[in-house]
Amino acid sequence: MSIKSMEIERNSLGKVMSFWDFIGLGLGIVIGVGWVVYTGQWLLDGGPLGAILAFTIGGILLLPIGKTYAELTSAMPIAGGELAYSYKAFGLFVSFLTAWALALSYVSATPFETIAIGMLAESILPSIVSDPLYFVGDSAVSLSNIIPGIVFALYLIWLNYKGAKGSTRFQLVVLVLIIVFTFAFTGVALIKGDVSNLEPLFAQEGSLWAVAPASIISVIVVVPFFLSGFDTITQAAEESGKKMNPKKIGAAIIGTILAGIIFYILIILAVSLSMPWHESIKFVMPTAEVFKAAFGYEWITKLVLITALLGLVSTLNGMYIAASRLIFALSRGGMLPHWFAEVHPAYGTPKNAILFVGSISLVGPFIGKAGMSPIVNSASLAFAIAYLVAALSAIRLRYTASDMKRPYKVHKFTLYLAAIVSVILIALMILPQSPGQLSQIEFLVIGIWMCFGLIAYWWRQKIGDMSSDERTYLILGESSSKQIKNIDK
Q: Using one digit for the tens of pLDDT, what is the confidence trace for 220-271?
């Protein structure tokens, strides 16, 4: 069956994004995911050198995965990214499971950001702190940490609803401010800090050969989450400008990872040099508070908090973009209800998918701080699974679609290395006795999310509103024009 003979409409998104828009999307997420809160935890688990090596090694290990994504995205610049790759390689059900697991990572990050925005707003303006309304575990929830997250979320939902160009322009402006502010406060730490504050280099005590690996592994398991962001570029690839070379999308992915590694090393080094790290980890937000405690610079503490707030806002904005595009693609491909695939006729945005993701983010401030860690860790496992499926898809497509154009083609060994790294990351999070093993509540979060998705998937399949050929066209678009195969069977 040819595409022209199909009586089916494929909703398309606006072609408005440039190379720098993709950099802003990816890097704005990478350098904005709660480092002001978690730096102390990284030092506690790994020590200064252990944390630095974890982000260095973890980032380098992610490069083969990034290059795999670069090859796949440049070959198939389609909304949904992993959904399209795994569908072309392995068929319908595998692609659904992969995309829906990844959707957990994106969607669950949004309440994480709105929670953290409220926390930072209280730190920047202590005068707004109000009495607790109730407690979630040991975490107090008050109007002063609910309202800021709600306000920022509503603004970004409106911005994304109005069009991708506005949201990506906002992302670039915020990213530039973050970079300028970061160089300012890390520069102070590098100039005025003391290398003796780095001792001990690792968190554990004992033989170096024993403590170094344990310290590094304890931190490296969260690196995929904090360096995630490069993968969001794939979700918006369909919206690249008509004159943009697809190879540049791949370059944006690799550049995002490298810049993210440098950013996190600077943050960890700045905190560790400023004062003895065993003392700094006692602070609620050591990345900010060390500057006042060590140097008496309260203005730098405020600058760090403002930078972190901008980072959280950029991440929330980027996650809205990525999550809505992935859910839109799932619906357009016949795996979720039709409602999610509706495109605004004037703005060219997946309006209902944006509203769905936004509504989940609005729940975050009402959960409070107690909900943060399970969100981060369950998302890390989902990211690693998506990385593995993407790598396996790239390998399989080298054999089943050898004639497919690959503007950013990498060596086949890189694809196998990406698969190996992904397996290692997954093993570190699921194997008993592993320093990074996830808890039961984190597996429960993943299980509930997958069950919810499977119900929606079963309901859509029961309708039977499209043929296999039509689904292939809706998922793969013009890349399916040469030959449409029944890959469901």
A: 877 877 887 888 898 888 888 777 788 888 899 999 999 999 999 999 999 9
CA distance linking residue 395 with residue 397, whole number of Å? 6
pLDDT digits (tens, 9 = 90+) for 71-103: 999 999 888 889 999 999 999 999 999 999 888
The answer to whether the beta carbons of residues 110 and 357 sit under 8 Å apart is: yes
Domains of the chain in start order, with CATH, are 3-480 (1.20.1740.10)
Cis peptide before 200 (omega within 30 of 0): yes
pLDDT digits (tens, 9 = 90+) for 124-141: 888 888 888 887 777 778
Cis peptide before 126 (omega within 30 of 0): no
Written as one string, the DSSP assignment of 165-190 is: HHHHHHHHHHHHHHHHHHHHHHHHHH
The three-point CA angle 269-434-381 to 5° equals 75
Residues in the chain: 489
Cα 39 to Cα 57, 287, 308, 396, 429, distances in angstroms:
17, 7, 12, 39, 20
